[in-house]
Amino acid sequence: MTLVLDASVILKWLLEDPAREPDIDRASAVIQSVVRGDLEILQPAHWLIEVAAVAARLTPQTAIQDVGMLAAMQLPTSDDPNVMRRATVLAIETDAHLFDTLYHAVALEHKDALLVTADDRYRRKASHYGKIASLRDWDSVS
Q: Quick one: pLDDT at residue 139?
């Protein structure tokens, strides 16, 4: 299985404050599965930019190191034009931000891919398109 992890999941790796961020343990389990090679990962081309923008705002004291660590992971990305088209349609139909729909579009455009998100608002808006799971349900998905 190939996972697409949105910024809401990736940021949990960096914030590591269970009082502020629920499901950190699940986010850690996901990345451990990727590192072990149990799961593949495929990200939209903008993922690191979005995560860096949020990290710079939420954790400026560690953002530079955190972004460097994430960049060093060299996660595979997709810049397929079909992903952009699909993301644009999703953004229009769900009234969601394009940055959110890009993750989902990667999952929808790639065989055996699944978006894992901690963004329940987007998941509720877009669940009928399929190929999306809540990080909260990760144990049952994995």
A: 64
Q: Is the pLDDT of residue 19 over 70?
A: no
Cα(111)–Cα(91) distance, integer angstroms: 21
Q: Look at residue 141 and tell me whether its pLDDT is greater than 60.
A: no
Helices 7-15 and 47-58 sit at what angle, rounded to 10 degrees? 40
Residue 99 burial (C-beta neighbours within 10 Å; 0-12, 13-18, 19+): middle
Q: Cα–Cα distance between 108 and 102 in angstroms, integer? A: 10
In the chain, beta strands by DSSP E: 2-5, 40-41, 43-44, 77-78, 113-117, 132-134
Residues forming a β-bridge with 113: 2
Sign of CA dihedral 92, 93, 96, 101: negative
Domain hosting residue 38, numbered range: 2-141
User: What pTM value is reported for the model?
Assistant: 0.92
- Measured CA to CA, the distance from residue 99 to residue 111 in angstroms comes to 21
CATH of the domain at 137: 3.40.50.1010
Tell me if residue 136 falls in helix, strand or coil.
Answer: helix
